[in-house]
Design brief:
This protein is mostly beta strands. The chain contains two helices and 17 strands. Strands 1, 2, 4, 5, 6, 8, 13, 14, 15 and 17 form a ten-stranded antiparallel β-sheet that branches. Strands 3-7-16-9-10-11-12 form a seven-stranded antiparallel β-sheet, with no helix packed on it. Helix 1 packs antiparallel against helix 2. The longest helix has 21 residues. The termini are close together.
């Protein structure tokens, strides 16, 4: 009887360890001054870091989404700007929001997007939102200046297309959302300052469902930058990660079987 009591307590603790807690993150960059983002997250402002070029950020172009101050990512090499095709990241484990074994599930990433130059009808210019784990697994959504939309699955950074759509309306200033909820990946956006029409593409894909990192980026050319504002990430914090949780459940089952045999 005592053995069964301890097993029940252990299983109860495992169940509580798997309970999800809400996560809500937002950043409007209003308190940021111009800064250089480093390759290492240990040296960055608020743990944002880059993966390409000498990336500099600065407030520009006046008010951003919902009255916020807008933030621009741009690259330069001395005085010569370079073509930018990269991301800036925020890892919630590195930032201390998540413990070493925690991840985010049912995640929704949103951002206000506006860029400095370039033709609205140019499909080669695009913005990118990503939800990733620590090794680059996850999902990526891109929206180009011609209105095209693409969804990708990322396997350690290698992208595979899982969905496309086109609004057939070109434009710059947009509110964008990438979500992964109950094995459905959704990319959507609508243009600012126009009648509210939401353009969406979805894909049923349950390959990845736990994330630690958001990324914002895209592809822009010389003297162009990527502008973002009012970034939010919502979801549920899960302890532990799915793989660890599976091991705990198996361990609990084995312990229960052993006690029964001994009884």
């Amino acid at each position: 009887m005592k053995h069964r009591l301890w097993i029940a307590v252990g299983l109860t603790l495992m169940e509580s360890a798997l309970t999800a807690a809400p996560l809500n993150y937002s950043e409007n960059f209003n308190s940021w001054g111009e800064t250089w983002l480093e390759l290492s997250p240990s040296a960055t402002t608020d743990y944002w870091y880059r993966n390409e070029g000498a990336l500099v950020g600065g407030t520009t172009w006046g008010p951003g989404g919902v009255g916020g101050t807008k933030w621009m990512w741009a690259v330069s090499d001395g005085w010569a700007p370079q073509v930018f095709n990269g991301n800036v990241y925020r890892n919630f484990r590195t930032a201390g929001t998540l413990a070493a074994t925690e991840s985010i599930t049912n995640a929704t990433l949103t951002a206000y997007v506006r860029n400095g130059t370039g033709s609205d009808g140019d499909s080669a210019l695009y913005d990118r939102l990503s939800l990733l784990d620590n090794v680059g697994n996850g999902y990526v959504g891109t929206i180009d200046r011609a209105g095209g939309m693409s969804l990708y699955k990322s396997a350690a950074g290698t992208l595979t297309s899982i969905g496309t759509n086109a609004s057939e309306v070109s434009g710059n200033t947009k509110y964008c959302t990438l979500s992964v909820i109950n094995d459905v990946v959704t990319l959507s956006y609508y243009y600012d300052g126009s009648p509210l029409t939401v353009y969406t593409t979805t894909a049923a894909d349950g390959t990845y469902d736990a994330f630690t990192t958001l990324a914002l980026g895209g592809h822009y050319g010389y003297w162009e930058g990527l502008g973002y504002d009012n970034v939010t990430l919502t979801g549920a914090t899960v302890i532990p990660e799915p793989a660890t949780a599976g091991l705990l459940v198996v361990a609990g089952a084995l312990a229960l079987m052993r006690r029964r045999k001994q009884g």
